[in-house]
Amino acid sequence: MKRNLLLVVIFQVIVTGCGVNSSLTNNTYNATTNVELSRKNYHIIKRISGTANATYIMGIGGLSSQSLMEEAKKEMFNSIIDKEDEAYAVIYVTVEKHQKLIFPFYYKKSIIVSGYLIEFTE
User: Fold this and answer.
1) If we measure between CA atoms, which residue out of 48, 38, 44 comes closest to residue 76?
2) How far apart are the first and last CA of the chain?
3) I need a surface site. Which of 17, 34, 59, 64 has the fewest CB within 10 A?
4) Does a structural domain hold residue 116?
5) Is residue 7, in this structure, part of any structural domain at all?
6) What are 70-77's contacts with CB under 8 Å, separation 24+?
7) pTM tops 0.90
8) pLDDT exceeding 90 applies to what percent of the chain?
9) Region 77-101 average pLDDT
10) What angle do CA 114, 118, 121 make, to 5 degrees?
11) 58, 122 contact by CB (below 8 A)
């Protein structure tokens, strides 16, 4: 009886997965352009985002967190339709990290970078 219970517990520990989500609202983006939004000389066009994923099997594969962040930012900026002679900025940039884990076999890391695209009217 104890042996069966022990086998069930060991099986559950191995097969059970975990998930972790976090959102970074501090300035991890480090944009060097300063935009002053004190006057109503802009309007919000849309919310834009980019996603990057990495999968690891037995700890092998995928990209580093920094590479994932760069890939997600690149996808976010590629979603902007550029028009000549228009002044755009991305504000309120947020980075979300999602992690799924079935230890030690499977690990998936997703990074989502999002923000609001604004256009200056003056």
Assistant:
1) 48
2) 77
3) 34
4) yes
5) no
6) 71/111, 72/111, 72/112, 72/113, 73/29, 73/113, 74/50, 75/50, 75/51, 75/113, 76/48, 76/49, 76/50, 76/113, 76/114, 76/115, 77/50
7) no
8) 25
9) 83
10) 175
11) no
- How many structural domains are present in the chain? 1
- Between CA 36 and CA 39, with CA 37 as vertex, the angle to 5 degrees is 115
Q: Give CA–CA dist 9/103, Å, rounded.
A: 15
State the average pLDDT over residues 74-86. Answer: 81
Burial environment of residue 45 by CB neighbours within 10 A (0 to 12, 13 to 18, 19 or more) = middle
Q: How far apart are CA 38 and CA 48, in angstroms?
A: 22
The answer to whether 116 and 48 have CB atoms below 8 angstroms apart is: yes
Q: Is 111 inside a domain boundary?
A: yes
Domain that holds residue 85: 17-29+37-120
Q: Per the domain annotation, does 4 fall within a domain?
A: no
Residue 29: both structure tokens together:
């983006």
Q: What is the rounded distance in angstroms from the CA atom of residue 83 to the CA atom of residue 88? A: 9
- C-alpha–C-alpha distance, residues 73 and 94, integer Å: 11
